[in-house]
Write a structure and sequence with these properties.
It holds the Pfam family Aminotran_1_2. The modification N6-(pyridoxal phosphate)lysine is found at residue 210. The chain is of the alpha/beta class. It has two domains: 5-252, Type I PLP-dependent aspartate aminotransferase-like (Major domain) (Aspartate Aminotransferase, domain 2, 3-Layer(aba) Sandwich), CATH 3.40.640.10; 257-349, Aspartate Aminotransferase, domain 1 (Alpha-Beta Complex), CATH 3.90.1150.10. Helix content is 36%, strand content 15%. It contains twelve helices and eleven strands. The strands form two sheets. It has a seven-stranded mixed β-sheet with strand order 1-7-6-5-4-2-3, sandwiched between helices. A four-stranded antiparallel β-sheet has the order 8-9-11-10, covered by helices on one side.
Length: 350
Amino acid sequence: MIIDINNLLRDNIKKLTPYSSARDEFKGEASVLLDANENAFGSPLPHPYNRYPDPLQQQLKSKISAIKGVPTNHIFLGNGSDEAIDLLFRAFCRPGIDNVLLVPPTYGMYEVSANINDVAIKKVNLTTDFQLNLDAMAEAIDEYTKLIFICSPNNPTGNSIHRKDIETVIAHFNGLVVIDEAYINFAKQKSFIQELTEYNNLVVLQTLSKAWGLAALRIGMAFSSAEIIQVFNKIKPPYNINEASQQLALEALEKVDQVNAWIKETVAERDQLADKLLALSFVQLVYPSDANFILVRVTEPKVIYQYLVDRGIIVRDRSSVIRCEGCLRITIGTPEENRQLLEALTDYWV
């Protein structure tokens, strides 16, 4: 499906003249840089952090391009995926007029960003097995619906959304479909990145925070059509990814084998932890997971949560979230951390 992206853009964004930084205006090599009002004497650190970073992160994008198989002009890098989410609202949703469709339970930042940008929210709950309710979604969409957010594997439930259902949404929706794949490295399902050539209304979000272990660097990735990436670059802050994060990410991306080994171990630990939790009498259900966490239904979620907190073990209480009543979300830790968790929970029931 090919749609006219310009028909979705806010008028003020179409007319916007983006900020032009010193590093945007000058291309090439130079030995004397007197254009950006930087400290010419250097920085008090070993690396020359006195210079502004590449505003388009070309070196880092080239490395990601080689790993993901996506051309650099189809890649946007943000200060976490949250920046890309916010830019989608600011570029395509008119405050007080347009709306977005969410499918709870899901990642909470979509709703927060909508509220910050004064964009109305329509909600269609996932089914009881945490899949899309396609009929209800079709009924909820109107002429002002600009974005649909689908998290797969989903947070906080951990399951992947049926691929054919997502394809149905993308093929029949005249707005943008945003697939958040923060946990895709832990799943058997293939990324929707491979569908970018088929749909210019598709935006795929990924991150270096989860499987890559770089949460502190705050680097999120958005993959989409070149025209949507151009919109992101037009309205983002000029230097949204700092030099330290860019350089450390480049170093980390050389260590694919280490990350793959961690992914394999995490999946194995996830399956073992699920089995052992099911042996505890107060555990009612462990939902299937394609992520690096599991959703566990227990008899007394708030009591058990506080019990673990008192022992220095922090999980996430999701018992107040729609469709997650009675549930705790547990991130998969190291073998030793998982052992401590199981030991504490075993003692809880004694």
